[in-house]
# Entry
Amino acid sequence: MRLAQTMALFYAYFYLVWGFNYFRPRLETRLGWEKPKTGEAVFRSILDSMIFHTNSSCVPVLPADYPVIDALVEDSYCKNSIRLGINYPNGSRKPKTMLFSSLFAKSGVSGYFGPFFNEIHLNYYLLPMEYPFVLAHEKAHQFGISNEAEANLAAFIVCTTSHDPRLQYSGYVNLLVYFLSDAANLKDAREYIRKIEKPVIFDLRFQRRHWQGLQNKMLDQVQTAANNAYLKTNHIEEGVKNYNQVVSLVISWYQNAGNSNHKKN
# Structure
């Protein structure tokens, strides 16, 4: 009985302090975006733009840069608060390194937001090129953006609208992975791969080998199943597939925001 009472208390507390965000309308509804034009031609155009900007923004990111990157992400969230429909500052956001990072890395977890103590936890094994994007993603959750695709979009906007090339590169290269996943179904997918410059290809291959080397397939499957069930329980009907839906949100962002900085010259 005491165990049941304790679990019920934690359940109620979770929804009281943060979980209610799962019941909010979709980001596109909250921001009043019009339904975007879709189709293969639109996807190809934006994929070309993503590759172009990833190539042109490619710069090294170092672990020594992390404190500065944290401040830059905060500054970008402040400047994008109206655009993202969030209240800034809404508390303070100081990232912590995960306990048991190795265990989490084996199950493919790069970061998480702890709603009970309002804390951001990042995996020790994150690559520098991933750090700004993952940090911005977890901060999006702290601002009440519960949907994973929407948190990815927020991270993309925060990183790519920053004046700092390290944030820009992290935003573009990490979103490019999602676009390339969808582009795999195109007959000429290899042609898009050939457009990616060698330094970016090196980073993408190193990223894949890095996480594959840390992965434990059984733990990864268990974590994926648990996360899938958690998301579906909390009104994210797509489950873990929701992460990749950032592609359609980026297309909406391009067409509704009309940001010329994202258009290929």
User: Anything to note?
Assistant: The chain has one domain: 39-262. The chain has a mean pLDDT of 93.
